[in-house]
Design brief:
By secondary structure, the protein is α/β, with parallel strands linked by helices. Helices cover 42% and strands 17% of the residues. The protein folds into 2 domains: 218 residues, Aspartate Aminotransferase, domain 2; 139 residues, Aspartate Aminotransferase, domain 1 (Alpha-Beta Complex), CATH 3.90.1150.10. Bound molecules: pyridoxal-5'-phosphate.
Amino acid sequence: MNLPAILGGAALRPQGPPPWPAPDPEIRDVLERAHRDGWWGKYLAGQTEHLETRLREFFTIPHVLPCGSGNYAVELGLRALQIGPGDEVILADYDYPGNFLSIHAVGATPVLVEIDPRTWNLSIPAVRAAIGPTTKAILASHLHGGRVALRELTTLAREKGLLVLEDAAQATGACIDGCRAGTWGDVGVLSFGGSKLLSAGRGGALLTADAAVAQRARNHLMRAGNIVCPMSELQAALIVPQLEKLAERNALRWRNVQALCAVLGDIPGLRPVVAADEEGLPAFYKLGFQLDEERFALPRGLFLAAMQAEGFAVDEGFAVAHRARSPKRYRQGSPLAEASRAHAGCVQLHHPILLEGEEAISQLAQAIRRLQAHAALIRAKMVG
Ligand SMILES: Cc1ncc(COP(=O)(O)O)c(C=O)c1O
């Protein structure tokens, strides 16, 4: 869509979204060292070991297993928790879709439950109500800068004899009640995919405090002395300098989210899904907004196309599992009205702009207001 032309002006950010991963000089140094010393192509060069140590320190957790992706780490975690055929795993209907499939990959049955409308994360009352005789575990993902209340969830899990897999792929470095996201569950999962807060293009890690779980995960990960789905030495080396900056960057993203919420004020039909009263530092990977198409007066497709034309990295959120999958493949554990609302109305903003300054935040607010002010014109030009 050529929105600037429709509105008779220039795009607010003609340069487009900021690049990611960030072009840090420390990353260039790693790449130069890898080339100079030749370890970039080796099986083992001490880099993965070093990353493990740094992650163990950062997360204050005894066992860290780097691997090829967050998806694989979820599956590995389920296997290490000995979840398989005949077991049920509760997860949010609105979640990263790969998690539903990882539960299937180990032969277990997903139980879909509602989300909390304030945060779009797993609703703990819905989890409680959905527990059945064959339920074995809960998969809790922290999404959109929100954090599942893990103290409450792990207390419930202990009470009911359930295991918790905590997916912190989108919340790396966030804190919940004084502990890092990813360290509350029996297993925690990180992703180092190309868009993530710590990025190596690909990669993931499994975290656990339980030596037996770690050993089982290692057994699954190793085949004839070789790692089945490894992280490379180069990937591991690239994550370390980013880890050093993570807390500072998460704090900056959070300050900018708060500034954005303040400048947006009450825009009819657009609500930032931000629970400002939660304790501890959040980590924003994709800031979510609930778009009410009628009140904002624009359908989501046009809203996204127009914002992209203005130079902002926005897209839709997740598709809920209950719409995408056959009912034979899951049990519905609760009503799913809020999850359906997130499915239909989520607009998400990719995090790199949250590392920029006041000007970027003000441009973003300006773009949203400009869209709303010209909604009728945009509809007429684009649909008519
Ligand atoms: C919540 C969540 N879990 C898991 C994953 C999978 O991670 P990966 O892309 O590293 O496989 C993602 C990826 O976006 C995610 O958002």
